[in-house]
Design brief:
Structural class: alpha+beta
Shape: globular
Strand order of the largest sheet: 1-2-3-4-5
Radius of gyration: 22 Å
Largest sheet: 5 strands, antiparallel
Distance between the termini: 35 Å
Keywords: Membrane, Transmembrane, Transmembrane helix
Protein name: DUF3137 domain-containing protein
Order of helices and strands: HHEEHHEEHEEEEHE
Transmembrane segments: 65-83, 99-118
């Protein structure tokens, strides 16, 4: 009975478009997984494609993504200052449970905001000069270690781009987030970006596909 309940909940929480990968006329598309690679997402655009030069393209965080994360951080830092200033008039009040709660609440918001800002700001780079794709500020080494293989790949190993929509449900609303993935020559996938603007992600995918000279497999058009 418990397994049936879990299965029902999983079925309700998952969503994917009904489509046939054979329409791409490529055997690799049939071997590739079409479930979302990265669960979750946002309902707004978090990244934009920037053409640095003819040999390098990057995904960078949008101003909206930075402001979104800074709101969390500002609330986390500002709440203890705003609500706790009256309590700080007396030393004994510092140890009151209400003040401790405000500090902990603010710390949680500040931590979330800082983590979001760090995650959004992490660059996503495609560099033909080096011949690599990677996420982060550190360039991959010529002979990649196991850890580097999880966040980087040789550009020549990229077979196609994949766009997959995912219905993200919360307590009181739901929205669709779109993830852009790399499909590698062994059929494995790597997530590039994941946000809520289908127009922008398709436009960026088209530019990136032209840069890499690979096809775009778009499962969001069904």
């Amino acid at each position: 009975m418990l397994n049936k309940i879990k299965h029902a909940l999983k079925k309700l929480s998952s969503w994917k478009p009904s489509f046939d990968p054979s329409k791409f006329d490529d055997e690799m598309a049939l071997k590739t997984e079409w479930e979302p690679l990265k669960r979750g997402g946002t309902n707004f655009q978090t990244h934009k494609l920037v053409e640095v030069n003819y040999m390098r393209i990057e995904f960078r965080s949008t101003m909206g993504a930075k402001l979104f994360s800074l709101i969390f951080f500002t609330i986390g830092v500002g709440m203890p200052i705003f609500f706790g200033r009256e309590m700080l008039h007396e030393v004994a009040d510092i140890y009151q449970s209400d003040f401790i709660f405000i500090i902990l609440f603010g710390l949680i918001f500040a931590t979330v905001g800082g983590w979001l800002f760090y995650s959004f700001s992490k660059p996503v780079i495609f560099d033909k000069t080096l011949g690599f794709y990677w996420k982060g500020w550190k360039k991959p080494k010529r002979y990649m270690a196991k850890m580097e293989e999880e966040i980087s790949s040789r550009i020549g190993n990229i077979y196609a781009l994949q766009i997959i929509p995912e219905l993200v449900r919360s307590d009181n609303k739901s929205y669709v987030s779109y993830e852009l993935n790399l499909v590698l020559r062994d059929g494995s996938r790597m997530n590039v970006v994941d946000h809520g603007s289908p127009v922008k992600i398709r436009d960026d995918a088209k530019k990136l596909a032209e840069f890499l000279d690979v096809p775009v497999w778009d499962a969001s058009m069904e």
